[in-house]
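Researcher: Next entry in the queue.
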Amino acid sequence: MAKLRRRTISKRTVEALPVGGREAVYWDSSLPGFGVRVYPSGSKVYLVQTRAGGRSRRLTLGRHGLITADQARRKAAQVIADIKAGNEPVLHNGASPADAGPTVAEVAERFMTEHVAVRCKPATQRQCRDILDRYLLPGLGNVRLGQIGRERVAALHYSLHQTPTMANKVVDLLSRLFNMAELWGIAPEGGNPCRFVRKYAEPPRERFLSDDEFRRLGRVLAEVEAEGKVQPSAVAAFRLLMLTGCRKSEILTLRWEDVDLDAGELRLRDAKTGARAVAISPSARRVLEGLPRVPGNPWVIASTKPGRRVTNINSPWLLIRARAGLNDVRIHDLRHSFASRALALGESLPMIGKLLGHRKVQTTARYAHLALDSVKASAARVAESLRADLAGDKEAPRSAG
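Model: Structure for this entry, 401 residues:
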C-alpha cells in the first residue's frame, strides 16, 4: 500500500517531497482529505478524498506544476463541499473528474508496483511489463484513465485482430488495471470500459505427440546427447518434462532438496498453482539418478556456471525439434502430450487434473474432447467385435422344416 504521511501541503513542501521506488501519499495536516501523491517517475499529483453516501471517493485535482498547491487546496475544499451537498464535483476549467484524473502511465506504474510485483510470479511480471510497453503505453500512456471509453478499447482490440490471442491479452491486462484503479478509488465503480469487449476466438494451442513422434523425439534426444550438441542437463530437463507432465519452470527451478527419491516425490514449493507433490515414476527416477549432484550447486538442472541453473532451454529445443521433424511442437506441448497419453491409457479427467497440478476443474476440461475420442475408439472396437457375430447370425443357414 502507498505510504501515509501528514504535513502542511505547500509549494515548498511538495517540491521537497522525496521520490522513491514506490508511490507515497502525503496528506495535508489542516484540510482532511486533501493530499498529494508522489509517483516513482517523479510526477506529483494533488488529490482529494472524501466520503458520502456510504462510500469513499478519491479524485485527482491536477499535477503539481500545472496547478499550484494553493489552487489545489481551494479545489479540494470545493470538491468536499460539493460531494457533501450531493452534487457532482466540477474541477479545473469546468473539467469533470474524468478529465483531471491520473494518466494510464501513472496508474500502470502503481499497478506494476503494488499488484503485479506482489501477486504475480516473475514470468507473469515480465509478460505484463512487455504488454504495457509494447501495446498500451505507446498509445494510451498520456491519456487520462477516465477518458478511456468502450469505443477506444474496442478500437485497440480491433487493431490487433490479426493476432487474436495477443489482442485478448492486451484487453485483459487493461481490464485488470481498471479493476485495481477502481479498488484504489481513482476510477468510478462499475466503470471498466473493457467489460463489453467481445473476445476473439483463439486458435487451439494444444499439440499432442503421437506414439511415433514420441519415439522420434526420444531417438533425437539420445543422438544430440551422444554428439555433445546439447548440454546433458538440458536433455535431462526435456526427458523429465515428458515423464512428469510438469511445467518448464517447475523443472528448471527444481532443487535437490525438493527431490525425495525414497518417497518417490518431487516437492514443488513454488508451482504456478501453489505448492504440490509430483509422483516420480521409475523412468523419471532413472533420469534423476543419472544427473550429477554438483557440490555447491543446489539445482537439479545445473548450469556449467558454478552455483547456477539452466535458465533457457529454448535454443536446444529448436535444434531437437527440427531434427525430429516436429517444428510445430512447443516445449509446453510436452505437458499436453503427457495428459493425452494418460487419457489414452484410461485415466479419468479428475486424475489428469491431479497429475498436472490443476487447481480448477475447468482447466482440465480442455482435455475432455480427448476423453471422448477414447470413448469413441472403445465403442468402435466393441462394435467391430460384434460385427462378425451379427453377420454370422444373418448368414446362418435355416434348418429344414
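Model: DSSP finds 16 helices and eight strands in the chain.
Researcher: Noted, moving on.
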